Amino acid sequence: MTSSFHDTRWTLVSRSRGSDTQAAEALSELCEAYYAPVVAFLRRQGREEDGARELAHDFFAKLLSGGAIEGAKPERGRFRSYLLGALKHFAADQRQKFLAAKRGGGLAPSEMDDELADVAVEMPDAEFDRQWALTLLDNALIDLEQEMAQEGKGQLFSLLKPALTGLSQSPEQENLAHQAGLSVDALKMSLHRMRKRFRASVTRRIADTVGSPEQAEEELQHLFAALRG
Asked: Which residues of the chain, if any, have pLDDT below 70?
């Protein structure tokens, strides 16, 4: 599912409130955008892949049922932070239900349960943020690809996409220039412009999820830190 280029996360949040088909589609799109970070968070808590994905589906099903996202508003700050807080609350609630079921079945909580509790507190936030950053970059790259395809530059995007994160060696540049029908200097200029547009696309994606320009800049720095970490 793909939103229009001008749609924003906060617009989607606003549209997701309600019980009609449009609201359900908007909320489904939000869930799709944050599915990978949620799974990464749950995996980092010590869950197996299948268990993390199952719990992620349960978490988003709760959001899709309506009402759980009503407190998300632009003036309250970053949507990422709001969703992570909701996820933590949900995961803690699920763990309490699990422990209650064990006690009800006559089983005492084990040392492994205590270890998982420590992991839940200390480790998953960074993994959530890292996966959020990677997903955001992927989506920004898709935005740029769509833009350039609409401009008739889809082939140029495909050729230069691998070099967006760093300059290739000279022989590779010469090969790319030949494929693109450009001089090496023209290729370097095209790559420079693509990098600027990619960063602008990332910035727009970030601005869609925060409540102010100041928070957007802070979130951009947080994205860089998450990737480094």
From this structure: 1-20, 27, 64-77, 98, 101-123, 165-171
CA–CA distance, 167 with 188 (Å, rounded to integer) = 9
Domain ranges of the chain: 9-228
Q: For residue 228, what is the DSSP state?
A: H
pLDDT tens per residue, range 23-72: 777 767 777 888 999 999 998 888 889 989 999 988 888 776 655 555 55
Cβ within 8 Å of residue 44, ≥6 positions away: 119, 123, 124, 126, 127, 128
- Which residue type does 96 have? Q
Residues counted in the chain: 229
The residues, any chain, with a CB within 8 Å of residue 17's CB and separated by 6 or more, are 23, 69, 70
Residue 175 sits at the vertex; the CA angle it makes with 173 and 177, to the nearest 5 degrees, is 65
